[in-house]
Amino acid sequence: MLTAIKGETIHFILGLLCVIFGVYMLLAFSSFFFTGGNDQSILAHPDPGELLETQNGIQNYAGARGAQLSQFLINDCFGISAYFIVVFLIVCGMRLMKAYRFTIWKWFVSCSILMVWLSVTLGFAFGGTFQDSFLYPGGLHGYNVSQWICSQIGAPGLILVLLVTLVLIGIFFTRETMQVVRKAFHPALPKRNKRKEAFPTEAAQQPADTENTALHYTPDNTSDATGTKEDEQPVEIELDPIESQADNTTPAYATEMRKQPDETVIAEAGTIHQKTQAKTTEEPTFEIEETPEEEEQEDERGSLDQPYNPRLDLEHYHFPTLDLLNSYNDNTPAIDMQEQNANKDRIIQVLRSFGIEISSIKASVGPTVTLYEITPAEGVRINRIRNLEDDIALSLSALGIRIIAPIPGKGTIGIEVPNANPRIVSMSSILNSKKFQDTTFELPVALGKTITNDVFIVDLAKAPHMLVAGATGQGKSVGLNAIVTSLLYKKHPSELKFVIVDPKKVEFAIYAPIEKHYLAKLPDSDSAIITDVTKVVQTLNSLCIEMDTRYDLLQKAGCRNIKEYNAKFINRQLNPENGHRFMPYIVIIIDEFGDLIMTAGKEIELPICRIAQLARAVGIHAIIATQRPTTNIITGTIKANFPARVAFRVASMMDSRTILDRPGAQQLIGKGDMLYLQGNDPVRVQCAFVDTPEVERIVDFISHQQGYPTAFMLPEVEDDTEGGSSADVDMNRLDPLFEEAARLLIYHQQGSTSLIQRKFSIGYNRAGRIMDQLERAGIVGPANGSKAREVLCMDENDLAMRMNNLKN
Ligand SMILES: Nc1ncnc2c1ncn2[C@@H]1O[C@H](COP(=O)(O)OP(=O)(O)OP(=O)(O)O)[C@@H](O)[C@H]1O
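A: This is the predicted complex of the input protein with adenosine-5'-triphosphate.
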């Protein structure tokens, strides 16, 4: 701790010194232009000790040392471009003081390069006036270097060298320079095709040259089926079907194309079809559909800072910027035509070998998986194709083949095949997408990209609770980080609080520094990240209290949900003096839910279910994650209350059924490949990848800004270990297990504290307190020495009546 403080203090002092020295140099350099001529004679032949005297005759505002420094750095070294040293010193200082977040090495390289280039340029430009003036604009360095280069390659050669280096410097700063240069040569050149840049093609992997058209594949060189098209638009291309079995020497497609060379049609705006008619059922058509990448904002990497609430407590808060995230621009081509054609051929062959003919096949290439949409020929039964899942997988020698028969809403059958070279879906591309930036969702959670390259966002406020499951190492933690990250990029600290439960202690510790901005905790807790099981129970009970309080406030305000309530509060229709307050959303994230259930059982499950059943309207949402998708952890009650499910790859079909109520998750390929289910049909999504250093940078960015004085305080709960007597039982705060415990005792007709303790795996004191409440409610009789209490409530109906009375 002490060393950390020391380190920070030293950095700050060093930074301050850098800035002060920079300002001093600025003064000296600037003064040099006016006083340099006068000071030159003194500096050129100083008497020993003369400069140390008070009356040394130096006129530079920065004194004798300033004059010497300027003389040396400007005249003897780099000329006017010595100002870059000042810039770098100030930048360095600011960074050390942590006032601004500069990338030092970039500034160092940039300043150095510019200084040298400008020095040579000025040295060359003002070479003629070198002897006449006290000021050498390019300095001795610039003069000597330019003279030497001139002597070697002549003045025109030097000019060319300077121009080329200028362009190289420009490219170093921004790749847009290339476009500027291109335009200089060819002013009519259209705007750069972004998608083509994003998906470079490799001639080696594509039979036809695809450099200037995104996806024009001509399987036969004799074919002239090409077309030009607008960029950023979807492309559907029909490719050669497999070679006819009858004649496997002549590709049917080539023949067809020669016969009908002008079959290229523009089917609809932005869609180009290169159509060949299927001659017979033996020659199905094959199309590849490349859905365009989600449009990104033109001037990306800016801040997503937008006002959400006119009464922000932290009005100077800045949202994290996108440059904190990696972009993972991998160079693998977007579409490998060889692979696509090979897969298509094998699919058709396998189906044909089982006597199934198809009339067309279309491919949608996603980041990690390609969907082949097959239209079966007349009279083929879907079930037959479904049963061939394993045979198709075997013939493609690929894991993770999934058959969707039929694709909902379409009369086709889908076969999902993993790509040989999967692409990473970077979090930055998702957050920078127009869809995310323009989203109107209350709690937008950007999960990744679908098989059609659409950015996939869900509204957690509508979900309203999410269950995330998958075997270990398949991308669960990355998925949870992606969820948190997308919320951090959209919600202001005043609008959102996280309650993080991390039994593993290491996964979420990374978020501890943003405690005062985004985390909620119990008043007596040291850390906002909850790692201890008892604290989890307390926190969940506290959230139940918060939920009840919020419902009371909503009732008082006459609102049905948090959105209406907050809108009223913002419009000053609710008086804070009556207890009203702006309600931030609360997102509870519980990692390793399985472990918690194993240790604390019902004590955890019940408040979770209570929150899941009721908390949606008051803005409390739960996300629970487990790597053990078994029925004793994901119980029926949990499933009923967590309608949004995310399944990463699991080990068995049983596990998949436990999470999604259907198979499928066992066929995923891992590394963030997931199925998202909300409603009827699961969607296959490639989860966005956000790495730990990226999260660290975001957290660092937020934590260096002003936060609230403390974390968001959850209501206090009575400690489980505190004793209690029947006299001070608070019937307004019934234990969350109260009703369940009453049912248990009625069922057993035995008022035993240890029975409650055992069945709900809770401490004796808490069980005792529940028993006291049951006594006050008239459900059990008074303590009867060592014997069990008498149960006064006969059946469920009786209990329901008493519960009603209690609630009123
Ligand atoms: N969306 C993704 N894109 C690419 N790679 C991913 C993605 N998600 C995960 N991975 C890869 O898989 C590895 C394991 O991911 P992660 O740590 O999220 O697994 P996990 O399911 O949380 O494992 P555990 O349960 O052991 O914590 C990561 O280190 C990364 O290399």
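Confidence is low (pLDDT under 50) at residues 190-281, 297-311, 720-727. Residues 424, 470, 472-478, 627, 671-672, 687, 689 surround adenosine-5'-triphosphate (CB under 6 Å).
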